[in-house]
């Protein structure tokens, strides 16, 4: 009988963890889509029990011993195995860095802050949330300091490592600074150029059933495997599941033919990423996605760069006619393209276009760093938000609802999360430039509804790497160049200035 | 801070187990109803991991110590707590009685036997299954002997305890013997009486959507809570879930307006049982249902006794007209009633009527006891089946497919299971007699579509008892009389002889 090495025993433990995580994914999806409305209490117990089990599994003395012994024998491990061992340690370190008593205090504070956030939104008054948010920030700072000590990082960096592993705030600064410098004028220029001729509004009645049929046709063209995944309607678009059983949802708006489709494309980007993760490592930490920023890059590449390109619109237009019987000048290729890429200054992140969205992210990034360092007291957040909004977006929110109460993230204790949206767009820009370089025929392929070449490139260059490298190294492997905001800015310049 | 007693710690452990079991229920329901077809491999891993976890939880030294210490302090426990402790021990004993090596060998043998059973059915030849079934029987006998030693029971009784806790084979014999004696002549009499005037066939096109609407109307009348449960179409009718999130399915046949409805009623009986279990004990062993026979009794009471009664047909007829626009002599109250209760000898258990069904069960009970005792070698099963079929059912199966290959139970290693179908019918008969005694207005209530009185009686007398008593004691508590086949036989006599 062959000896089972400590490393192999670790793989076995993490295989269990993967099964638990997969079960949790099904339970969450069911809660959002199929669960009876009154069963939330029952489901809450199930989710909490399984999550606690996952957490406990990472904190056992047995796992600690196995990690030590595997590390001692690491010289004999292959590259993927070494990377896997590193990811195992990373997951364990994150899980045990926060003592259970602090985890429990944060959970309680967050539950209250979430309720207060809803109440504050009803009353349109940040003052209702502020005291509870102060408590959340205080506790999250304690947690960040513990993580910082353990990982030898700046506290904010230690939190962000969960979303953008391997990317430090100095890297993020190097990305966001050129964006901040160019975006304000770029927005002005784009708005001027788009004013004439005016973009025709696209309105009408677009039944959900027909939108759904259109989405399915588009998703099939992109290679979404309906025998290994589902597509459902939901209150908001999301992706849930594990590779091998991946479930996309979108939200259909009956007056808008694009919201549901672009939501589906966004989620399909993430789903195809999950489905392309290295099959041999599917149940191991190294076989998982490389965090929020990478997921977002795959979503934005499909939704923004491919899905709002001239080539895609050329392919899409006959499909719109087929599914909606819709024609007219507002549905000309030119107008649809311009409509999908229209730029407007607005106070809301979630409704923002591709250009102003980045400004929203940078604003949050700056504010959350100041909140976490203690430089900005929570009670001054509203004023700071409004000042920065005036400076960067050129507008002051009309109310807290349109300002510092619009996102739930901080009330949930989620700091270090926002930048991954922006970094995701920047990575998408760099990947898109590399794809266009490597596949000069990409526009013709897209125009013909052929996405196999695009998916193949992403599979080989991005998906197949799993969590083998940190974010910056992964981008370098995929594109041959260091992570930089330049390609994304070149893409924006071409799309919103040269091309319009 | 109050001391947590060993008993309270046990409750906490079993609360975790309950959450795991609930998660497993959602995963199984999803696998049958919503999961993408190609994701069975992923789901298999998740189910196996969670099931192993449940099993491991029952076998820890910690649990054994807690059970010992709680037992030592049992004098201070309230009645429900004592019953709960007994059920905890019972679950633990069942879980650890079979050594893991034997569990694994049975699992492997069963997986092969299941495949062979399908192959044997394709070839219509029991010989294909026999060698593998022999191995399963051999291993199940080993398991039965271990359980028998542990529980001080006969081996077959030790297996059956899982399905009909507290009911021994001598009790089952006392139930099945009078059935075996009366049923053959009762079947002959019923068939003679039903021959004239002939029962008109009920055929037509009954779209699934309309059948579904009818089912929902009926289920609502019975008190099924759609905010705490679901109702879906499936390949076969089943109930899955936990109290608080219970999910019923049925199978609609487009040519038959009753199959889907009666399947839904059958499952609604089980669902209402689960929903009526004692709320204070919902996550403890004593708060669970009292096994297969009790579940079956609740299903058959609704499907057979209520759902095929004259009063119910009187209420149902206008609903049939409303949902299917169907009229004509074949849909007269009299014909629908006679149609739903028609008796015919046939080789298949799953298609059998209420009378001949019992004979099918007794036949299997006798054969499986002989198989398990070694008195009947597996290779002689076909002949024994056919002989007993000729003797009891008055027919010899035309082929193995219609004979000893029709059920999968034994190939799956499930012995002691079949009798619970028959015992369930007998319990239903006894409950039905008691209900009619206690609520003389029950027929008028049913005819008016008022089922709250019926449900209230069942809730108070049966559901609210959970697993507090063994099966015979539970029946005595519910009806005031010892478990007996006599009420069920009286019901059959009245329905199929006096009344027709």
Please outline the major beta sheet of chain A: 3 strands, mixed
Helix content of chain A: 55-70%
Rg over CA atoms of chain A? 23 Å
Average pLDDT rating of chain A: 95
Number of strands of chain A: 3
Quaternary status: homodimer
Q: Biggest interface pair, residues each?
A: A-B, 36 and 36 residues
In DSSP terms, counting alpha (H) and pi (I) runs of 4 or more, how many helices of chain A? 20
Overall, the morphology of chain A is globular
Structural class of chain A: mainly alpha
What is the terminal-to-terminal distance of chain A? 69 Å
Secondary-structure element series of chain A: HHHHHHHHHEEEHHHHHHHHHHH
Biggest sheet strand line-up of chain A: 1-3-2
Poorly predicted ranges of chain A: none
The fraction of residues in strands of chain A falls at under 5%
Label this structure with key terms.
homodimer; 500 residues; mainly alpha; 3-stranded mixed beta sheet; 20 helices; 3 strands
Describe this structure in words.
2 copies of one chain form a homodimer. The first copy, chain A, has helices spanning 6-33, 40-58, 61-72, 79-97, 100-123, 126-151, 155-160, 169-194, 208-222, 259-276, 291-306, 310-324, 333-340, 354-373, 381-392, 419-438, 442-447, 452-461, 471-479, 486-498; strands at 229-233, 239-242, 245-250. Chain A has a 3-stranded mixed sheet with strand order 1-3-2, sandwiched between helices. The first copy, chain A, is built from 20 helices and 3 strands. Chain A is mainly α and 500 residues long. The longest helix of chain A has 28 residues, at 6-33. The first copy, chain A, is globular. Chain A has a domain at 1-97. The N and C termini of chain A lie far apart (69 Å). The model of chain A has no long low-confidence stretch (mean pLDDT 95). In chain A, strand 2 and strand 3 form a beta hairpin. In chain A, helix 1 (6-33) crosses helix 3 (61-72) and helix 8 runs antiparallel to helix 14. Chains A and B meet through helix 1 and helix 2 of A and helix 1 and helix 2 of B.
């Amino acid at each position: 009988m062959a000896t089972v090495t400590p490393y192999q025993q670790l793989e076995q433990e993490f295989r269990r963890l993967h099964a638990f995580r997969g079960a949790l994914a099904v339970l969450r999806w069911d809660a959002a889509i199929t669960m009876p409305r009154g069963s939330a209490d029952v489901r809450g117990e199930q989710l909490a029990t399984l999550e606690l089990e996952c957490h406990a599994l990472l904190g056992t003395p047995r796992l600690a011993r196995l990690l030590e012994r595997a590390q001692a024998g690491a010289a004999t491990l292959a590259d993927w195995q070494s990377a896997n061992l590193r990811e195992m340690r990373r997951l364990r370190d994150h899980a045990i860095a926060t003592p259970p008593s602090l985890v429990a205090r944060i959970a309680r504070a967050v539950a209250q802050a979430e309720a207060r956030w809803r109440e504050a939104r009803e009353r349109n008054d940040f003052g209702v949330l502020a005291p509870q948010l102060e408590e959340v920030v205080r506790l999250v700072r304690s947690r960040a300091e513990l993580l910082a000590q353990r990982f030898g990082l700046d506290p904010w960096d230690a939190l962000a490592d969960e979303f953008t592993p391997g990317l430090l705030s100095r890297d993020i600064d190097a990305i966001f600074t050129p964006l901040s410098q160019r975006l304000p004028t770029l927005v002005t220029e784009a708005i001027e150029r788009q004013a004439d001729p005016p973009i025709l509004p696209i309105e009408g009645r677009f039944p959900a059933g027909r939108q759904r049929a259109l989405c399915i046709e588009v998703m099939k063209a992109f290679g979404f495997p309906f025998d290994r995944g589902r597509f459902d309607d939901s209150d908001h678009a999301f992706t849930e599941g594990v590779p091998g059983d991946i479930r996309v949802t979108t939200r259909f708006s009956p007056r808008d033919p694009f919201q549901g489709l672009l939501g589906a494309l966004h989620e399909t980007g993430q789903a195809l990423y999950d489905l392309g993760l290295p099959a041999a490592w599917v149940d191991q930490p190294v076989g998982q996605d490389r965090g929020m920023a990478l997921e977002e890059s795959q979503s934005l590449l499909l939704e923004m760069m491919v899905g709002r390109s001239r080539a895609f619109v050329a392919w899409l237009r006959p499909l719109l006619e087929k599914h909606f019987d819709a024609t007219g000048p507002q549905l000309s290729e030119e107008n649809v393209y311009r409509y999908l890429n229209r730029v407007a200054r607005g106070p809301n992140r979630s409704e923002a276009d591709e250009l102003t969205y980045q400004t929203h992210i940078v604003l949050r990034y700056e504010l959350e760093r100041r909140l976490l360092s203690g430089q900005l007291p929570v009670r001054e957040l509203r004023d700071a938000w409004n000042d920065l909004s005036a400076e960067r977006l050129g507008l002051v929110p009309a109310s807290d609802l349109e300002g510092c109460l619009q996102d739930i993230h901080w009330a949930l204790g989620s700091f270090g999360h926002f930048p991954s949206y922006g970094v995701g767009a920047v990575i998408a820009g760099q990947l898109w430039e590399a794809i266009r370089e490597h596949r000069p025929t990409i526009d013709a392929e897209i125009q013909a509804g052929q996405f196999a070449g695009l998916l193949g490139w992403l599979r080989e260059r991005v998906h197949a790497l799993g969590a083998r490298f940190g974010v910056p190294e992964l981008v370098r492997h995929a594109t041959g160049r260091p992570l930089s905001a330049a390609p994304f800015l070149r893409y924006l310049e071409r799309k919103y200035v040269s091309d319009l």
